[in-house]
Amino acid sequence: MSRARLMDRVATMVLWLAGLVIITLLAAFLIRILGPGLPVLSWKFLTTKPYSVTAGGGIGPELFNTFYITGLSLLFSLPIGIGAGVYMAEYAKPGRATNLIRLSVEALASVPSIVLGLFGMILFVNALGWSFSILGGALTLALLNLPVLVRNTEEAMRAVPGTYREGSLALGATRWQTVSKAVFPTALPSVLTGVTLVAGRAIGETAILIYTAGVTVSRRFPDFRPFSAGETLATRIWYVKSEALVPDADAIAAGTGALLLILVLIFNLGLTLPIYWYQRRRMGK
Fold first, then answer.
1. May I ask the CATH architecture of the domain 41-282?
2. What is the sign of the dihedral through the CA atoms of 201, 202, 204 and 205?
């Protein structure tokens, strides 16, 4: 056996081993979280309000707030993040202003989430007097989403071959028509992948929401008021494991953790499968 073939087999084995390690870690993680959590899940647990000092409460308001805050944060961040990414990739000219924007995005991406939470508390909770609110939590989460969306969209647009632009412009299309009809649809699967990442991170975010949305829920359920308190599933886990007085805190945390994991998996699959079908349709398969 030649040295080249030997090295090829060794490299293949190493890569297979790395893949198996990742799969094993994921399986162990799922078993550890879903094992004790799935028996706790029930219709009553998912739809009733939490109790403060007695056992048997549910996580209905927290489940609603998780979707509500995540949806609002995406509503605020998607137009700005994707728009800025398209601008940086297609319209921005090299210069100080462009470098400043890119530096600002990189700096925002490196800020720890707990620092963003403190910023949100100072601005929305204290300065604006909103107290702990769903709106304050969603706006602060939008700040967490923005740099990922900008960078991901810019890279996705730049990855589209230049021949797409040249062909479109040669046929008489305007710059905007080229971007909106030729370049962006081609980059859309990669853009949606970035949306999946930020949405999954927003669903499981804790530090930001502790400081901005709080660890209590409204007496109404469901409560669509943006200035009501907005404890989510992730912050509920933190609260019951650190400060709660309920005797079944461990069961609540296990069930909430399992539900949160299931939601993230469903959300990822719900966006990944349409992306896969979209790519196959564009390729004519």
1. Orthogonal Bundle (1.10)
2. positive
